[in-house]
Amino acid sequence: MATNLIKKGALTLEDNTISIFDHKGYIDGKYWVMNVFAGLFAKVAPAPVHGDISEIINQDIVDGNFEKIERVLISPNVAVRMYLEGMINRNHIKEAEFFDTKVIFHNISFNTTDGNKLIDVEVIERPENTITTIDEMGKIV
After folding, report:
1. Is 29 left (phi over 0), alpha (psi -120 to 50) or beta?
2. CA–CA gap between residue 5 and residue 32 (Å, rounded)
3. Beta strands in the chain (DSSP E)
4. Among candidates 90, 106, 126, which has minimal Cα distance to 17?
């Protein structure tokens, strides 16, 4: 029986295994274990996404568009990687908003060229882009 279970909508965190929209992952020693398809799992070298996301935010800063950013929109696979990397933690999960088609994590910390920024992150099941910034109308910044 799981000692640490959080289940809300499309997200489950059981002990240290996260599942979001059927994308799963956990840490096994120095490797990440992630489902690749059809319930098959593979051990992979850690693949942090913080730098990729910060690069997109930094480009918005350079373009003078930072104030337009409402959220960072990501895929479930990126959300799993953010959890494994430590960017999303139990507290973020407990405080998240859950809907049928999306999960919103609040105040995720990103290091940018303009200092540390706290930005909400929205996970949707099948985004057009793996990582993008969106404005309050849901349009790409």
Report:
1. left
2. 20
3. 5-8, 11-14, 17-20, 23-28, 31-37, 40-44, 71-74, 97-98, 102-112, 115-124, 131-134
4. 90
Residue-wise pLDDT tens digits, 109-139:
999 999 999 999 999 998 888 999 999 999 9
d(CA 21, CA 123): 9
In this structure, the number of other CB atoms found within 10 A of the CB of residue 61 comes to: 17
- Spatial contact of 80 and 18, defined as CB atoms under 8 Å apart: yes
- Token pair, residue 103, equals 């999960």
Token couple for 52 = 């990729």
Domain boundaries, the chain: 5-44, 50-134
78 sits in which H/E element: helix 76-85
Buried b (16+ CB within 10 A) or exposed e, 30-58: eebbbbeeeeeeeeeeeeebbeebbebbb
Partners of 107 in the β-ladder: none
pTM above 0.90, yes or no: yes
Whole-angstrom Cα Rg for the chain: 15
